[in-house]
Amino acid sequence: MSSGMGTSTFIIKWINFLTMLLAVGVIGFGVWMSTHHDSCKRSLTLPVIILGAVILVVSIIGFFGALKKNSILLWIYLILLCIILLAILVFTVLAFIVTNNGSGHTVAGLRYKEYQLQDYSSWFLKRLNNSHNWDHLKSCLVKSNDCNDLSKKYKTLKQFKSAKLSPIEAGCCRPPSECGYPVVNASFYDLSFHPISSIKDCKLYKNSKNIKCYNCDSCKAGVAQYMKTEWRVVAIFNVILFVVLSMVYLVGCCARRNAAKNHSKRYQLVRISRLMFEAMV
């Protein structure tokens, strides 16, 4: 047995053993999420469990393929790994394309930016303007209490005006600055003032904790900016993951090739032994 074969199969075996443990942890996390009372968090249960199941199946095939030095199992493992690599590559490219547009607008006197929905890609617009999708997202935003907690975080008007709000806080918890509503405190605006802008967000905003600006385009834009940031982080992680899995794939190719050679040598030895036995008889 060559040293190359021992090294490649050893690496594949232990990498897949570790990913098997990781997959069990992911599935367990998904099951735990399914017991959560919050429907927003519970909605992620199925994707998490499916991800864990896929990792587990691929890892089991790779582990036993390396353990038994079985070229067929390693072939299946490499095919599945290749599909995963292609899926990661496609998703990463799309993520960078989708998140290429959109940026905040600075407003005089504010430390944070405001966001406009039309600045973002058509993919975001289509999904955020879908009433079913937005109703679900809106219910999650209301439950998060981000807007209601602003008055606890910023107890004085001075603190609030100098705060650096997140995109969702800036877009969903307050009316756009161009409306011109006087600020009473972090969660209350003087709506008796006639807005100086004609945009519909000015009329949609209410001080009620369940309404705020959740129906505003500015809120959808804030969510789009948040999603853009998160997707960029995921895309960068996917680039790293792609490089790591590509290296694992190359090692797997070596293990598969060496396993095939080993099988061929065993077959030849068996054949030679059989011929020698027949010659002796």
Shape: elongated
Helices, by number, come to 11
Average pLDDT, all residues: 84
Ends distance: 31 Å
Describe the strand arrangement of the main beta sheet, using strand numbers.
1-2
Provide a descriptive summary of the structure in words.
By secondary structure, this protein is mainly α. It is 68% helix and 3% strand. The chain has 11 helices and 4 strands. A two-stranded antiparallel sheet has the order 1-2. Helix 1 runs antiparallel to helix 3, helix 3 packs antiparallel against helix 4 and helix 4 (71-98) runs antiparallel to helix 11 (217-280). The longest helix is centred in the last third of the chain and has 64 residues, at 217-280. It is elongated and about 80 Å long. Residues 1-5 have low confidence and may be disordered.
Give the topology, please.
Blueprint: H1 3-34, H2 39-42, H3 45-67, H4 71-98, E1 105-106, E2 113-114, H5 122-128, H6 131-144, H7 150-153, H8 157-161, H9 167-172, E3 183-185, E4 188-189, H10 200-204, H11 217-280
Antiparallel strand pairs: 1-2, 3-4
Helix pairs in contact: 1-3, 1-11, 3-4, 4-11
